[in-house]
Design brief:
Keywords: Oxidoreductase. With 209 residues, the chain is α+β, with helices and mostly antiparallel strands. It is built from 5 helices and 8 strands; from the N terminus they run E-H-E-H-E-H-E-E-E-H-E-E-H. The strands form 2 sheets. Strands 7-6-1-3-2-8 form a 6-stranded mixed β-sheet, covered by helices on one side. A two-stranded antiparallel ribbon has the order 4-5. The longest helix has 20 residues, at 145-164. The radius of gyration is 16 Å and the shape is globular.
Length: 209
Amino acid sequence: MFGKTTTLPDESTALRGRDTRPFSVGGDHLVLGNPVETDVPEGLESVVVGLGCFWGEEKTFWELPGVWSTSVGYAGGITPNPTYEEVCTGRTGHAEVVRIIFDPEKLPFSRILEVFWENHDPTQGMRQGNDRGSQYRSIILTTTEEQQKLAEESKAHYQERMTAAGYGTITTSILPLGEYYYAEDYHQQYLVKNPYGYCPLHATGVSYA
């Protein structure tokens, strides 16, 4: 059954994938007006995060002042150019993620981390709420050494607050980004295309500050 695998595959058990993406993604962001599929413009930064179902979490980030564009996709795993159905089997190793392109002069990376931690429960392992499976795991995929350092520091700081609030151990992985694969076009800005679409937020209710 889709979405129930809670162990990550290795090279011998992962789906083989393909050399090229089997679908197209294009056009401009339906809210921000900038390209969805794009390199990071000069002077901007990007980071990729996973905190459960990517539909609602993309909206969480595109609403932040200083975000230039967002997209949803798959990362953190093995299978090249996966489809949504393949990710849902748990045999790609990928998580559902949001790619955030932002202006660090307008939006400090520390604010992105704050929003990340406070909009899900990072102690749940291979699930988020009722969404179970390795694709829903908590993950931060950084694109600079400074991001990696700040993310690791924030995890330690937030663990102290989580422990004080009675939560368990944070299971979030923090790693340099490898490959990022765009999700199918119908997933991009899903809650604009489907205003009543289901995708719950999983806020911890614990302040990061």
